[in-house]
Amino acid sequence: MATSQVQLTPEGRQKLVDELAWREGEHAKEITEAIKTAKDFGDLSENAEYDAAKEEQARNEARCNEIRQILANAITIESSALGDMVSIGSKVTVLDKDSGKTLTLAIVGTTETNSLEHKISTESPVGAALLGHSKGETVTVTSPNGMTRTYQIEDIERL
């Protein structure tokens, strides 16, 4: 399986490091205790608690492996070195010229996206269109469904 490099902000890297530490430490101990308790119930062939705990153990280990793989192939992008252009690690305020609404978006790596927190990936249509542009510039974004939006960059800050 080919591995690809992932761009992360320093905050995104730290979040993954913290999650891995929790999964390998506290969460792994909780799962081990759940397995031990379920074993005490007796017959393992019809023990739903045991099966559930073993499934959680497998999910936890899979996520640990995924995080290790991401961290091994990640490049941490320091936003201070990127100048005044939109890049990963930018907090961008844009004016939607079509609706007149102002949006503030954080440009982050693919693994850090969170639409509820307005964190968009550098690979999303809007994120990709904004990359490399400066305050005052206008960009046009075509969404996957063919709709176009025009945004004017009002402000750029570093996360």
Can you give a write-up of this model?
The model has no long low-confidence stretch (mean pLDDT 89). The chain has 3 helices and 7 strands. The chain has 159 residues and is α/β, with parallel strands linked by helices. The strands form 2 sheets. It has a 5-stranded mixed sheet. The chain has helices at residues 10-39, 48-73, 125-130, and strands at residues 6-8, 74-76, 90-96, 102-108, 119-121, 138-142, 148-158. The protein has 2 domains: 6-76, Helix Hairpins (Orthogonal Bundle); 85-158, Chitinase A, domain 3 (Roll). A hairpin with a 5-residue loop joins strand 3 (90-96) and strand 4.
Kindly summarize this structure in a few lines.
The chain is of the alpha/beta class and 159 residues long. It has helices spanning 10-39, 48-73, 125-130, and strands spanning 6-8, 74-76, 90-96, 102-108, 119-121, 138-142, 148-158. The chain has two domains: 6-76, Transcription elongation factor, GreA/GreB, N-terminal domain (Helix Hairpins); 85-158, Chitinase A, domain 3 (Roll), CATH 3.10.50.30.
